[in-house]
């Protein structure tokens, strides 16, 4: 039975791209483009407590009509992760986009998305966009903060071909979704990527021109050097649900070594005496903004926990 990946799902119909080698000679259309099958789902996967197929899902499927390229999905293979908003599965890279200015960076959103990446075993890629508008050397300051914690940071501007070539390399081989607040330039980045490096498929007529006022379904597009890029209408706001206040510190790499030297086991690094993390913060070794956002998020998660379990 052939296997493939769901590129999109609309109205109960799913576009499935077969794996190479999954079909005889990886069937091609007359235009020498990969064939995409339109599939429905067997009843066992409908809303009866079973998995609902999502874009990004790997599936096995039966071919019902080869000429019309119609089939049905037989089984959803194991997921490595999934999201509900946007509804997508098996992301292995998240491009977190912020702008130097216009709008001002929402650093709390960036930190929340980094936490989610670590919790879901997703590679984060921080993109600092609109670097041509950097009048106060903010790019270098932001790079320093996040590269110090081990995260990849890529400055980007629409005027630099070299920067986009670097982005192309970072996207190759990954299934990448883009996240970030409205107005940071996700649409421009996606359009540039898709206009230059899209693997031509039967859905090429639907190549996107996204605008900030456009609401779309989630869709995967195959890139010429391997991997997929997701056009997702969500990810502009995010609530952390994968962690609680007690393990939040585990998702701040800059705390790891210092936390072992705190006086109290289980130190929250918020108010306890003889806290090594706070000492490093006081001495400027840990970024002030990152630490203050940590304490804010800690209080937010603890309050949510207390309201839920200690009534």
Beta-strand percent range: 15-25%
Q: Architecture of the largest domain in CATH?
A: 3-Layer(aba) Sandwich
Spans of at least 5 consecutive residues whose pLDDT stays below 50 are 201-215
CATH superfamily of the largest domain: P-loop containing nucleotide triphosphate hydrolases
| The first-level CATH class name of the largest domain | Alpha Beta
Task: Offer a concise description of the structure.
The chain folds into 3 domains: 74 residues, Beta Barrel (OB fold (Dihydrolipoamide Acetyltransferase, E2P)), CATH 2.40.50; 150 residues, Rossmann fold, CATH 3.40.50.300; 62 residues, Ribonucleotide Reductase Protein R1, domain 1 (Orthogonal Bundle), CATH 1.10.40.50. It contains 7 helices and 13 strands.
Descriptive labels:
alpha/beta; Rossmann fold; five-stranded mixed β-barrel; 7 helices; six-stranded mixed β-sheet; OB fold (Dihydrolipoamide Acetyltransferase, E2P); Ribonucleotide Reductase Protein R1, domain 1; 311 residues
Give an account of the 3D structure.
The chain has helices at residues 107-119, 138-148, 161-171, 186-197, 256-259, 276-282, 288-309; strands spanning 3-10, 13-18, 37-41, 58-65, 70-76, 82-84, 87-89, 93-99, 123-129, 152-155, 175-179, 219-222, 228-231. By secondary structure, it is an alpha/beta fold. The chain folds into three domains: 3-76, Nucleic acid-binding proteins (OB fold (Dihydrolipoamide Acetyltransferase, E2P), Beta Barrel); 82-231, P-loop containing nucleotide triphosphate hydrolases (Rossmann fold, 3-Layer(aba) Sandwich), CATH 3.40.50.300; 248-309, Orthogonal Bundle (Ribonucleotide Reductase Protein R1, domain 1). The strands form three sheets. The chain has a six-stranded mixed sheet, sandwiched between helices. A five-stranded mixed β-barrel has the order 1-2-3-5-4. The protein has a two-stranded antiparallel sheet with strand order 6-7. The longest helix is centred in the last third of the chain and has 22 residues, at 288-309. The protein is globular, with a radius of gyration of 22 Å. The model is unreliable at 201-215 (pLDDT under 50).
């Amino acid at each position: 039975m052939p296997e493939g990946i769901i590129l999109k799902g609309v109205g109960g119909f799913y576009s499935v791209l077969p794996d190479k080698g999954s079909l005889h000679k990886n069937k091609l259309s007359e235009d020498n483009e990969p064939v995409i099958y339109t599939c429905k789902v067997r009843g066992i996967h409908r809303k009866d407590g079973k998995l609902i197929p999502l874009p990004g899902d790997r599936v096995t499927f039966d071919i019902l009509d080869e000429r019309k390229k119609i089939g049905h999905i037989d089984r959803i293979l194991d997921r490595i992760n999934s999201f509900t908003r946007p509804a997508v599965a098996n992301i292995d890279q998240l491009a977190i986009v912020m702008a130097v200015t216009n709008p001002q960076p929402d650093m709390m959103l960036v930190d929340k998305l980094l936490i989610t990446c670590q919790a879901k075993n997703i590679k984060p890629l921080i993109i600092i966009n609109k670097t041509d508008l950097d009048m106060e050397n903010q790019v270098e300051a932001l790079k320093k903060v996040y590269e110090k914690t081990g995260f990849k940071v890529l400055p980007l501007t629409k005027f630099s071909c070299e920067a986009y070539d670097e982005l192309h390399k970072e996207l190759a081989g990954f299934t990448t979704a883009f996240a970030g607040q409205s107005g940071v330039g996700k649409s421009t980045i996606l359009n540039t990527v898709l206009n230059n490096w899209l693997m031509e498929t039967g859905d090429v007529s639907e190549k996107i021109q996204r605008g900030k006022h456009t609401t779309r379904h989630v869709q995967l597009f195959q890139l010429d050097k391997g991997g997929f890029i997701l056009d997702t209408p969500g990810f502009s706001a995010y609530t952390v649900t994968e962690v609680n206040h007690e393990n939040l510190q585990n998702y701040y790499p800059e705390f790891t070594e210092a936390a072992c030297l705190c006086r109290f086991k289980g130190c929250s690094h918020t108010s306890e005496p003889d806290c090594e993390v706070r000492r490093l913060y006081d001495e400027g070794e840990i970024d002030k903004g990152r630490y203050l956002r940590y304490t804010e998020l800690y209080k937010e998660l603890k309050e949510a926990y207390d309201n839920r379990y200690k009534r």
